[in-house]
Amino acid sequence: MHPAVPFALDVRALRKRYADVVAVDGLDLLVAAGECFGLLGPNGAGKTTTLEICEGLLAPDAGEVIVLGRHWASDERELRQRLGVQLQETQFSEKLTVVETVRLFRSFYTGGRQVDDVIALVQLAEKSQARVGTLSGGQKQRLSVACALVGNPDLIFLDEPTTGLDPQARRQLWELVERLRAEGTTIMLTTHYMDEAERLCDRIAIVDRGKVIALGTPRELIRSLGAEQVVACGVHESESVPDHALEALPGVLRVRQDGGFSTLQVGAAHETIPALLDLLSRRGLTLTELRTHSPTLEDVFVSLTGRHLREQ
Amino acid sequence: MSILRGDSQLAQLTLARFREFLREPEAVFWTFVFPLLLATGLGIAFRSRPPEVVRIGVANSAPNASQVQRALLADPGLSPELLGDSAADLALRIGSIALLVVPHGADSVDYRFDDARAESRAARLAVDGALQRAAGRRDPVAVGESLVSEPGSRYIDFLLPGLLAMNLMGGGIWGIGFGIVDARRKKLLKRLAATPMSRAMYLLSFLVMRLTMTVIEVSIVVAFGVLAFGVPLRGSLLVFGGISLLTTLMFGSIGLLIASRARTQEGASGLMNFVMLPMWVGSGVFFAANKFPGAVQPVIQALPLTAAVDAMRINMLQGGGLGAVAGELAIIGAWLVLCFGLALTLFRWK
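ok -> structure tokens follow
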């Protein structure tokens, strides 16, 4: 990468409102060349709007977007050649074959990868002569990524690449993104799956209501909770334990209750769990469920917003 | 990058258009079969046959009814039949006979017919002539007949250029409009707009496809018309080709304009019918457009299909050259520039 262009993407104070909704509300981002950067947030957080502004498909109301050191207003032709874009919900022509579709997209770029190489890269070689209409959801999504890659872009945007895919197809797509990362492609992706962001991204911006509310590597974000473990327990729905009783237990950092279900972020589960069981039996409550796990990005999101990522 | 290279955008986009079309069996069927069905229908309607015989009723209540019938049989163009009173009334009412002869004794008849029907008025003349000659009339002027059937003046000659132009309108508006609206609905337009693809090349690929289809469709219809009916092609073929191509481009840009904002097939379809209906009715495809009152003539004459139909008729039937169709070409050209310009301004890629 050119030394004068330290960032693949530089977004400052971005704003965009639709008729009655503020979709993006003063958002800043810096994406370094060669990194895989994730925008993680619930549906409606403004991820897609942000991405489409970066892709030059939408004009922002305010703020600055510098892509690969260039501006959309003055360098659109150059930027289109250097970016790869995959959108949510694009349906390619069902009558064309895989190879015909990729060759069509290749014809738009002045330089780029060999059509067959790209098809092999997304593991569609044996489907190369198949009509797009006969592909599975995961195969169609990988074809879409192939069309985004065929111009050999310096930066590729993937908008919710695994939404709606079955677990196996998701894993295949993850492997594809990991191969691209290993090749050094700069990737910016959006997702509302925390496991996906955690696995694929070098750095993550957690986005909620059009703003970045946390930024860092997955490890940093999780470590910011200060919790070593998360203990989740359930009692009968008619029963409950007051927050302060749970907060008073040894090692508890934060408590969140939802109906008869309590989630405790703890420093040391082995200290908290005996005391928790003791508390419940003293109060004569029946334990219906008890789980512990290492904290995830989901827990980070919940502790920042009080909501779950998939809640809507 | 050369436009003609196989891996150029225009070549790839145009290939995609053709593949999408050829892999849709129904579309192929209708594109090639419709002109043939049309031509076959015309063939049945305009097949050669002997001159029509006029059916005449003779009231059988009169005693000399069969004498009158015999007198009428002397004219090969008349087919007289004896009818009872009520049957005669009915036949007259539903028009299955052109005229009813009611004899009164040996030297007096009544003709009953509808004065407003040209066929009935002609039947009156023929029947009267036959009866008067049978009664002994001698015609003082000797008459010879030579029959003429001149290509160019028949209804088929009038109809064929109209059908051709109408076909180009349907192809341009449906063929281009639906393709683009479908790509927008599938978010494919937006995806393409995110690539360095030249947007002009994309739209051009639809027009190239349309022009090719025009050559095929027009050739089928014209060849059939010329071979089966002897429809004349009196004007220059070059001018004829020019009119067809300009007309195709013009209707193609109307298709583009209609598709420039529509998000659904249903919305586009309504708009297309709204645009085409006045032209189906008013542009003189099936009957001469000058039958409409003078007040609406300026509108009728300015319709793109009227100009296309007129230009084709002037070229094919009257053998008019480029100068003779200049006015029509100017109208077609104006619509082309207006619609294409508007379409480019209004076009939404999302």
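The longest helix of chain A spans residues 167-183.
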